[in-house]
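Dissemination and training. As part of the outreach component of the grant, students in the summer workshop were shown how a complex can be specified as a set of sequence lines and then modelled as a single object. The example used during the hands-on session is reproduced here so that future cohorts can follow it. Participants entered these lines:
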Amino acid sequence: MRIAVQEDPFDLGAESEAFARNCAGMGAVVTFTGIVRDLDGALTAMEIEHYAGMTERAITGIAEKAMARWGLGDVLVIHRHGRLKPGERIMMVATAARHRKDAFEAAEYLMDYLKSRAPFWKKEITARGAGWVAAREEDEAALNRW
Amino acid sequence: MRIAVQEDPFDLGAESEAFARNCAGMGAVVTFTGIVRDLDGALTAMEIEHYAGMTERAITGIAEKAMARWGLGDVLVIHRHGRLKPGERIMMVATAARHRKDAFEAAEYLMDYLKSRAPFWKKEITARGAGWVAAREEDEAALNRW
Amino acid sequence: MLDVLYFAWVRERIGIPREQVETQAATVAELVEELKAREERYAAAFADPSALRVALDQELRDFDAPLAGVREVAFFPPMTGG
Amino acid sequence: MLDVLYFAWVRERIGIPREQVETQAATVAELVEELKAREERYAAAFADPSALRVALDQELRDFDAPLAGVREVAFFPPMTGG
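and obtained this result:
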């Protein structure tokens, strides 16, 4: 299990390759990558604030729950903070399981919890001004399925 | 959209990186990678037979349905055939969508249909002999959710 | 003349991957009956049609599908891709 | 003495990322009332507690959680990670 909270970009290709290489006995690897959308060209930047003391602890708790619940072979979570431009990768998760259903479910679980329970806040900077991204009710509701 | 049916290995890292790079406007990329499990050391090799004339056509049909249904930005499917050793990657899919839910659903849809509707047949070679992998009822049942 | 293809254990039981078949069968089911009547290895391969799938000109179809205009018929077990 | 931290628009409204607070408040809710009474910027930040989340010593908690033994309290809007 590896959790990384960082300002620097990460290498999606190298991370995916290394993760899949270290999952002996696992038949299924799922990755999710979140990318800053350009909002039809209106977005100048995305600023991601986080609660430095709490972030890694919160993500570790979420990842440990996923590992246990789905008997995963491995979990990877990388999440950036700071100022990102449209098209940059914000974060990724990877899960390894024996069968595809578990790998998919665990990745969706990680994403649902990272979305609403890891202490990050996104601010969109546009030519017209800046605004905090509001949490969506459907993201909170998504937790109910777990 | 890219569909590749091939005997050669593919480069998971390079494919993941290139796929995520070419999805302007998309916020979510999901990949699935299928790996030959070693079955607790009993497996010598996995032989994958396919119906050469039909395979690419069948996969293209599945991928086009996913593109339309979830409004995807892009889809990638790579599937190998021939003789593979434990630990080797059999196949991968990648989906790009604006939001994570669509990217996940589309990837699961692709996997469910590739599993039961793309003309591949797996044979497990072990020290005790060889046997065709039987289709699982739950894989057929998984199609009902779509 | 039909090109008839066999895959996986259907191919192994019948012993060949493909052959040309001269037939007047109107449907897949009729073709299967003709093949079963040929030799024991065909009868064994087609013993349980519910364990088989069929593609006509590379499209999955049912066993009651008509063969009119079809050039290629393929028989195989349920697929195990992914 | 409590370390009190503010994030995102809570931080912006109050104007500082963290401060030390001398308080006898027994619960988070009582602390919020004390802070609201201080100045307009606090009243504005805490106007709608349902729009806020709180962490005690870096664990998410409810507003009725007790402060006994707690060293760090953080207030922030619902999280938007991922």
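Chain B has one domain: 2-145. Students were then asked to discuss how this feature might be tested experimentally.
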